[in-house]
Design goal:
Layout lengths: L10 H4 L16 E3 L13 H13 L12 H11 L6 E4 L1 H13 L5 E6 L4 H8 L3 E6 L8 H11 L3 E5 L11 H10 L8 E5 L3 H4 L13 E6 L11 E5 L1 H8 L9 H11 L2 H23 L4 E3 L6 E6 L3 H10 L2 E5 L9 E5 L3 H15 L6
Helix pairs in contact: 2-10, 3-10, 4-5, 6-7, 11-13
The chain binds pyridoxal-5'-phosphate.
Pyridoxal-5'-phosphate binds next to α4.
């Protein structure tokens, strides 16, 4: 039987390259620094205590029933923590799903979105699959947001949606809050009307947020995730916005998008905000140590970061450095062929011993004799 798949799949989808999630995990000792996860499996010392709490809490979950479609209890906890109303919160299957829902509510004939580049790949991937035009605005020197150029694009393109990762992935920097504010204002003006998504996936490592400014900007949407603080496996993202925005986005959300076990696990961990903050503090300290150590090495430049990863640019071809690190058991994310990121690698900050292993391997990779 012959079947022409190309005749049925939308051309926008056929044109896309599949999202790359890095090498498959293989048995053996590997230092995994490629996905911006937390290295702490719920914190060594407190793992036992948390595991017992998980067991108690999870035992109560009614697995024969559908999960709470609105994650009421979890939203209640978050509302208290974040100082917003429950109606301002939507829980998603990872912030990836929240990104997709936002794309869905603006998609349609003539729809476009604007993003700085380089930035998180999913903003453009989902949009293109839905036929949304993507206006890319290159970042300026040292990956700073070029506000004038961005505002110009807004006037010309009139997008319905803007994504700003704050801090940005993969560059690690926090855009100037004044520039972000100018974009928020411009997107609620006569020339342009757009939702502006400030994606705060790395807020625990930057300590900066636009959340307190929700009242000022009716078009502001803040995204958070539990993936970067030790719960990447449960897939839990959080969208916070004004009630009207949340009501519209909820219309396109699948009713049971977040499973009962994930909701329970999130409730347990959110009740331990102090522990999450302790893990984050260790990562921030390690980030500064890694930045200083890489900065002192010849043949490599480390860009400042406010996230749980650092971007480095090597004098040797990035592909070769990456392969060399891999042969030494260190997995990092290779961006060296991506636009604007020639010979750049993104390295997640791991536990102290993992960072030591990375620094040793990088020094060996860049050391005398390897500068070919
Ligand atoms: C800026 C940014 N937003 C969203 C995500 C996706 O997070 P989640 O695991 O919640 O889907 C990532 C993951 O790397 C990210 O860097």
């Amino acid at each position: 039987m012959r079947f022409d798949l190309h005749a049925v799949i939308r051309p926008e989808v056929q044109a896309q390259v599949p999202y790359h999630t890095g090498p498959e995990p293989r048995p053996g000792r590997r230092v995994k620094l490629d996905a911006n996860e937390s290295p702490f499996a719920l914190g060594e010392a407190l793992r036992g205590e948390l595991a017992a709490e998980f067991a108690r809490s999870l035992a109560d979950v009614e697995l024969h029933r559908y999960p709470d479609p609105t994650a009421r209890e979890l939203r209640g906890l978050l509302a208290r923590d974040l100082g917003v109303a429950e109606e301002q919160i939507l829980i998603a299957n990872g912030s990836d799903e929240a990104i997709q829902l936002l794309q869905m509510v603006v998609a349609g004939p003539g729809a476009s979105l604007a993003i700085p580049v380089p930035t998180f790949a999913m903003y453009a991937i989902g949009a293109r699959a839905m036929g949304i035009r993507v206006a890319e605005v290159p970042l300026g020197e040292d990956f700073a947001l070029d506000a004038a150029r961005f505002l110009d694009t807004l006037r010309r393109e009139r997008p319905r949606l803007v994504f700003l990762a704050w801090p940005n992935n993969p560059t690690g920097n926090l855009f100037d809050p004044g520039a972000v504010q100018a974009i928020l204002e411009a997107c609620a003006g006569r020339d342009c009307h757009a939702l502006v998504v400030v994606d705060e996936a790395y807020v625990h490592y930057s300590g900066r947020s636009f959340l307190p400014r929700l009242g000022e900007f009716p078009n502001l949407v803040v995204l958070r995730t539990l993936s970067k603080i030790g719960l990447a496996g449960i897939r839990l993202g959080i969208l916070i916005a004004n009630t009207d925005v949340v009501r519209e986005v909820n219309k396109v959300r699948m009713p049971y998008n977040v499973n009962a076990l994930s909701q329970a696990a999130a409730r347990v961990v959110l009740a331990h905000g102090d522990i999450v903050a302790q893990w984050a503090a260790v990562i921030v300290k390690e980030r500064e140590r890694v930045l200083a150590a890489v900065g002192a090495m010849p043949g490599v430049r480390a860009f400042p970061s406010q996230a749980n990863f650092v971007l480095i640019r090597t004098r040797r071809p990035g592909d070769a450095v990456c392969a060399d690190l891999l042969s030494r058991g260190i997995v990092v994310r290779n961006f060296s062929r991506a636009p604007h990121l020639a010979d750049c690698l993104r390295v997640t900050i791991g536990a102290p011993e993992e960072n030591d292993a990375f620094l040793d391997a990088l020094a060996a990779t860049l050391g005398p004799g390897s500068d070919t």
